[in-house]
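Internal ticket #5521
Category: modeling
Description: The requester needs a full-assembly model to guide mutagenesis choices. All entity lines are attached below as received. Residue total reported by intake: 320.
Assigned to: D.W.
Attached entities:
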Amino acid sequence: MLEVSRASHFDSIERQAEASRLFMWVFLASEVLLFTALFALYSGYRGLYPEAFSTGIHENLQTVGSINTIILLVSSYFVAFGLLLLERGKPRLALVCTMTTVLLGAVFLMLKGYEYHDHLSHGLYPGGAEELSVHGVSVFFALYYFMTGAHAIHVMVGMTVLSWLAVRLYRGDFDEHTSHPLEVGALYWHLVDSIWIFLWPLFYLTGG
Amino acid sequence: MNHITDKSLLATILALLALTGLSWGLSHASIPPPWEMVVALGIAVVKVSLVLLFFMHVIDASKSVRLVVLTIPVFIFLMIGLVYGDVSTRLVPVEAIPSHAAPGASVTSPSR
């Protein structure tokens, strides 16, 4: 059984937890930089091709995108609540919450796959969509597939991390004093949720 | 003081869902640009702030963590602000011309 033990260069488990928390935040800041560069591209191209972006947004499935927004928000709630339960010495309930988050992530990816299938079957390819006949709409769809695709990859990574943490919860590796592994895993998931909070209005709502 | 409780987490998710509904409702309210974008992104900023403060525990975080968190909006404003500022002050939007335009038709706008 792998338990969380204090590494020799930390005075206490609390110091170790704070170090892991701070490291995860530095990593999250670098992930935000990645998406900020993509959002900067979006802002530049939207300024150049406002009609194309409006046309492209109207082609997206707003209902599916909105359901996905709700799914990710609720999934964030469950992993946050699961962490609270673990901090109160209830690892089994924390396991249930964490697995709920992973399942909701899977539902998100299935809906995303359905959206991509719908777009591709209508000829809306990355950098394609010629039949929409608005100059610049290919740029919109290039950005759409790249940004939502990069986000979907992050969802998969988050699901993998949380699944591994769920296994460790099941094994009894964590308790109320050693909850920081779940905490940093949850931080990554909340970042994934936060990115989608901005992707949703930019690709589904603001078509004019 | 520990701000992360059952009640605060539940209140946060309910607020997030309400703001999501508001965002969706306002997107159908025919708000003219650029206010449509301002409203949508403004609500998104409020939602992410709630996620940061309560789900990600920033409200109870140490000063070191808060310093790292503060660098995030700084870089966002720099990168997006400068790119959008460059495009909006130096170029004009491309008109909505058909992509199958006649040869010789201008497809880019001159810079100012």
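Resolution: model delivered.
Comment from assignee: The radius of gyration of chain B is 21 Å.
Ticket closed.
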